[in-house]
Amino acid sequence: xxxxKITCSICAWREHCQKKYYIKDPAHCPDFTKDLTxxxxxxxxxxxKKDED
Length: 53
Fold this sequence. Notes:
By secondary structure, this protein is mainly alpha-helical.
């Protein structure tokens, strides 16, 4: 499981970004800052959610 994936969808600037989804490789975006309000889920939490369904 890759936890440090850089994508536009978790960027703190995604709402006002002029480059959003247009750059070929978001991993090299100089403006990327992870949105701290998005919580990362551990593998245990993901398994629990699947078990509840």
